[in-house]
Amino acid sequence: MSLTLVSYNISPFVLRVTSALNYFQIPYQQKDVDVMNKPEWFIKANPLEKIPTLFVGDKVIQESLVILEYINSLVPNSLLPNDPLEKAINRSRAEFSNDVIGVILGLTAASTEEAFNNGLTELKWYFDKLENWLKQTKFIYSDELTLADFAYVPIYAILQALSPHLKFNIFEGFPKVQQYGTTLLGLPRVGTSKPEGYEQILLERIKTRKPYFLSV
């Protein structure tokens, strides 16, 4: 069954999917679309117009975490726990990353020092939760890689792009959170799943918002 991933070049949710596909070495085609001017064929096949969308033959799957679960079904050894309760916990750890991504994107849009500092305080609250989990396990759920870990890849890709433009270490006080990012981006084919020129494209997009952190 052919796989076609409809994507947007700097979408963090697309990066989750491409990281998993590349890590598992699953063949797929990728089509980038203009999110402000989506093509008619895409809208017709996918009325909700969500990106990423995975076309499996003529079937459509949306939502990055759902797509990850489908990808997991294609590999010989599942990266999800067998126990239903543990599987649900794994999924909840993946969902937690959505909030972290939201806070980070908010930081990149903060136009004042106050808004930036408030966002940073909120991010540290999330990092504190992650640090406590990661003191117990190497990965987000256990000492072995699981499906939930792919949900966190874009967090570190974004922060890696931002770090040269920050005058402080955003991971200060959170060594386990920092090490986790190094581990994730060091996984085979994961760190190279970003599109060409990702950092520059991301920063150019952020600059249009005139964020505080780029003005100091």
From TrEMBL:
CDD domains on file: GST_C_family, GST_N_family
Any single GO CC term annotated in Swiss-Prot or TrEMBL for this entry: cytoplasm
InterPro entries registered for this protein in UniProt: Glutathione-S-Trfase_C-like, Glutathione_S-Trfase, Glutathione_S-Trfase_N, GST_C, GST_Omega/HSP26
GST N-terminal domain boundaries: 1-79
Residue ranges constituting the GST C-terminal domain according to the UniProt record: 83-213
Protein name stated in the entry: Glutathione S-transferase
